[in-house]
Design brief:
heterodimer; A: 657 residues; alpha/beta; Monooxygenase; 21-stranded mixed beta sheet; two-stranded parallel sheet; B: 247 residues; Ubiquitin-like (UB roll); five-stranded mixed beta sheet; two-stranded antiparallel ribbon; elongated
Chain lengths: 657, 247
């Protein structure tokens, strides 16, 4: 082993214990996760490594190592150093092939130059959590053998209309750079990026071995781009379109499903429930018939229950099924009966994940009984089920691990879930009426029931209108395995509905008792005390979302000083000003980003951050209405570490300090 | 993204989902000067969605194009039903740089589909409390899917049942015109309903049938001449006539 060379700034790090040898070195297995909704759009950063996992702080670029390694080959130190042992490098590369986790690879790359080079040549998946943290050129120069690229663009609050249109996150420069550099590229996963049809065409053209395309919460493309992918990517295995926004004009729509090759395809996963334009069903049926490897199929709401049956007949080997509208198209006389549909489900012996039900007829719901016992994942979050409709179904779902549902099922429905689904790991309860003054059908009662019935819970997202500290505390005690806790009390500043107290103690208990917690979203009436708890106990927290909370800048200080693993902090509408912002100065570079909107920041504070931290990009984003030139108040701040400095594609309403 | 070079215009776009409900809504571009905006922007409005669903699959459906209907109702300024989308007042300019096609995103529609991921303005302003942008934090995709479904339910008065008579058949049937996307489906459905009578008639040698309907004015018209949506709004009764009579 060549002598470790110390970096110019510090002694070589210890090789971390986490260096593990993974089971296989295969880089080409489809890495879409088994659970149907792991790579779904809702940010799942804390599930075990899925392709959208965000447990890699450094990404593809540097993670804080400031020395620029000499890539010209071993002679950086002077004449007395022996040339690298080529055999040893080959051995090293063969060994490093087995490392898959990015964090492990980052650590390995810091050992010495030789390891750096070997790691750079053997990294197969490039994960870049912020597309502006590193330039395509730099990434491509460092890594030689990349087969998969994961890129994330806009900050998450873009999902809630807080980032104006045209902000950025264009994939074009990346595709342009990846094309010539990695002709053997097989997989591209993009989240919150703007992808044009031209980009898709270029992907189809540049990568003859292309196998997997996954677009989550992206925009900018249309069925035209999809047609290119379908037509030209002959080895396509995965085409997953999840909560994207497509740009189709009515008269320019393309029948992209018909563009898949006529011969048998290697498709394993086809997810297109967000492509809301109609399509040629016969073409889909034929495609399914000639795709023997198809395991995951999620169709859009233009598929009726009769058509669904035809699809299921063609693909009895499906494991994941998105059921489309789940409603009959036919005349009442000619409508399919429930038992016919149930037969189809009974024949699909491998189904473990169901979703869809977009416009469901409740009379067809019993058709899924035959598969309930085997289901591990069930997504009813687009179906406004009542508790009476849910109960008979969920009573059979003894093996359920992931459950997404609407609050229309009420506390009653959640109680039924708690009674049966003792193995539940992930629960998401979405609001049917996502407004502040809505009635709200679930409350602390449902949360309490879940905590009692589902002790293995790891991830929860819960929208409600009424909550109590007691229920949250109960959950913190009953569900010690919680990794993700996101509670959204929709009415702003709502206190405990029984005691009238702030929700400080509830969230405090969560951070205290849930020792594995890495992601937390808070809501309700919260004082600085809650943040003191978070800072004190939330040592593993990587992602924190704050809205309408806190009294003073101390909250921010507690968080920055206490949450040592903090990666992503998103804050909105909270009384935090420049002082709070500046208390984070020493921590920003260890984070991926900070987002703050509608707080009390001013240009002075933000400029000071920009001046003092040259390796951060500090963006002040104006709302369109702010036509008055220079305003002192900052409405939206987005700052992130970057190796590249200010980006050159910023629109006029973005001021980079 | 195409640059939009069209002059300011108001057009109505017919929007149909599975049941092909007729949804008229106004499509404003942001180029319309304020005085043309109707004073409805204080009415509670759903979140803006940029997506407009098409009313028919392109090139593989028999349903007629609604271009005629579009022109027909182009002169008609109508708001959508209460609670459904109508355009929102857009005093703000969108980003001037990229994609002027995006300027058309000012429309609201019940179509299910993703809403804007980019900056949109105010949500609804209810009389009770001003809604805050992006709160509660539910993705626009999800919000719009429900608005679409809710709008559809609101629109759907429960069916448009008309009597269907067939010459020589002993009794009449009733069909819900809203169940079909277009003429072909209607034909198929009628075939299904009247199989026995058709078979009997065929034995007599007469294979030709024409479907006619009685419109609002009481006139007997041949089915298939006008756009589907116009047809279902004017059809009162259906009649399956023997070919010999139809001529």
């Amino acid at each position: 082993m060549s002598t470790p060379r110390s970096s110019s700034t510090s002694s070589p790090p210890q090789i971390p214990q986490s260096l593990t040898l993974a089971h296989t070195a295969s880089s080409t297995t489809s890495s879409s996760s088994a659970s149907g909704m792991r790579d779904a759009a809702e940010d799942d950063s804390d599930s075990p490594p899925s392709q959208m996992s965000e447990d890699d702080p450094g990404g593809g670029g540097g993670e804080g190592d400031r020395w620029e390694p000499d890539l010209r080959g071993g002679n950086g130190g002077g004449g007395r150093w022996a040339p690298p042992d080529q055999v040893l490098e080959n051995v090293l590369e063969s060994v490093l092939e087995f490392l898959t986790a990015a964090r492990d690879r980052n650590a390995a790359s810091l050992v010495c130059r030789s390891w750096y080079r070997a790691e750079a040549q053997t990294r197969r998946e490039l994960f870049i959590g912020n597309c502006y943290a590193v330039s395509p050129r730099r990434a491509v120069e460092r890594f030689g053998g990349v087969r998969a690229v994961v890129l994330k663009g806009k900050p998450r609050f873009a999902d809630f209309s807080l980032v104006p249109y045209g902000w950025g996150a264009y994939v074009s420069p990346w595709v342009a750079a990846l094309g010539p550099a990695y002709p053997r590229l097989e997989r591209i996963c993009l989240k919150r990026m703007t992808v044009s049809d031209a980009d898709l065409a270029l992907v189809a053209k540049s990568f003859p071995l292309f196998k997997e395309l996954s677009l989550v919460c992206c925009d900018g493309f249309s069925t035209l781009g999809l047609a290119d992918i379908a037509e030209r990517c002959r080895h396509l295995r995965v085409l997953d379109l999840i909560e994207d926004y497509l740009e189709d004009e009515e008269d320019e729509m393309v029948d992209w499903i018909s563009k898949f090759p006529e011969s048998n395809t290697s498709l394993e996963s086809l997810v297109f429930d967000c492509v809301s334009v109609p399509f040629n069903f016969n073409a889909l049926e034929a495609l399914v018939a000639r795709s023997p490897a198809l395991r995951r199929l999620r169709v859009n709401h233009h598929v009726s229950v009769e058509q669904l049956r035809r699809l299921m007949a063609r693909a009895p080997q499906l494991t994941h099924l998105g059921t489309g509208a789940f409603r009959s198209e036919a005349v009442p006389d000619g409508a399919m009966s429930v038992s016919e549909l149930a037969t189809s489900f009974a024949a699909s012996k491998s189904l473990i994940c169901l979703s869809g039900f977009r416009e469901f007829n409740s009379e067809y719901l019993p058709a899924i009984y035959p598969v309930c016992a085997k289901l591990t994942s069930l997504n009813f979050s687009f179906a406004s089920l009542t508790s009476e409709e849910l109960k008979p179904i969920v009573r059979n779902c003894v093996n359920l691990r992931t459950f997404w549902v609407l609050d229309t099922v009420g506390d009653e429905g959640l109680k039924a879930v708690a009674e049966t689904c003792s193995d539940l790991r992930e629960l998401r309860v979405f609001p049917l009426d996502a407004t502040e003054d809505s009635e709200g059908s679930v409350s602390d009662v449902g949360l309490q029931a879940i905590s009692e019935g589902c002790p293995k819970l790891e991830s929860i997202l819960y929208f409600c209108q009424r909550m109590t500290n007691a229920a949250v505390i109960a959950m913190s005690k009953n569900c010690p395995d919680l990794v993700v806790f996101r509670l959204c009390i929709m009415g702003r500043h709502r206190p405990d509905r029984i005691t009238g107290e702030p929700m400080d103690d509830g969230f405090g208990a969560i951070v205290m008792n849930c020792k594995k917690l890495t992601r937390l979203s808070v809501s309700g009436l919260l004082t600085d005390k809650a943040f003191a708890y978070i800072g004190k106990y939330g040592k593993l927290i990587k992602t924190l979302s704050v809205a309408f909370a806190g009294n003073s800048d101390m909250s921010l200080q507690y968080v920055f000083e206490g949450c040592t693993k903090l990666q992503k902090l998103e804050v909105r509408d909270s009384p935090f000003g420049d002082k709070g912002l500046l208390s984070g100065l020493n921590y920003f570079y260890n984070m991926r980003f900070l987002w703050m909107n509608s707080c009390r920041l001013t240009m002075r504070g933000c400029s000071e951050v920009a001046q003092q931290m040259q390796n951060l990009v500090v963006e002040v984003i104006k709302d369109h209405s702010d036509d008055e030139g220079e305003s002192e108040t900052v409405d939206k701040l987005y700052l992130y570490r970057s190796l590249e400095g200010p980006r050159n594609d910023a629109p006029p309403f973005v001021n980079i300090l | 993204l195409k640059a939009s070079s069209q002059p300011p215009y108001i057009s109505t776009i017919l929007l149909s989902h599975q049941h092909h409900l007729l949804l008229h809504f106004l499509h404003y571009t942001n180029q319309i000067s304020p005085h043309l905006l109707l004073p409805h922007h204080n009415i509670p409005l759903p979140l803006i969605s940029r997506f407009r669903s098409t009313s028919q699959p392109v090139a593989f459906s028999a349903s007629s194009m609604e271009i005629d209907a579009e022109n027909l109702s182009a002169t008609e300024l109508r708001l959508g039903l209460p609670g459904t989308s109508s355009s929102e007042d857009r005093p703000k300019k969108p980003s001037p740089t990229v994609g002027t096609k995006r300027a058309l995103e000012d429309t609201t529609s019940e179509a299910s589909g993703t809403g804007s991921a980019a900056g949109e303005d105010q949500d609804t302003t209810t009389p009770a409390k001003a809604q805050v942008v992006g709160w509660p934090p539910v993705r626009a995709y999800r919000k719009n899917t429900f608005q679409a479904a809710a709008a559809k339910k609101a629109e759907q008065p429960g069916g448009l049942y008309v009597k269907v008579s067939m010459d020589g058949a002993p009794y009449l049937r009733k069909v819900d015109l809203r169940m079909y996307k277009g003429y072909r489906e209607l034909r198929e459905a009628l075939n299904a309903l009247f199989t026995k009578s058709l078979a009997a008639a065929e034995n007599g040698g007469d294979h030709q049938y024409a479907i006619a309907y009685e419109d609002k004015d009481g006139d007997l018209m041949l089915v298939g001449d006008v756009p589907w949506d116009m047809f279902i709004s004017s059809c009162k009764k259906l009649r399956i006539m023997k070919g010999s009579e139809a001529r």
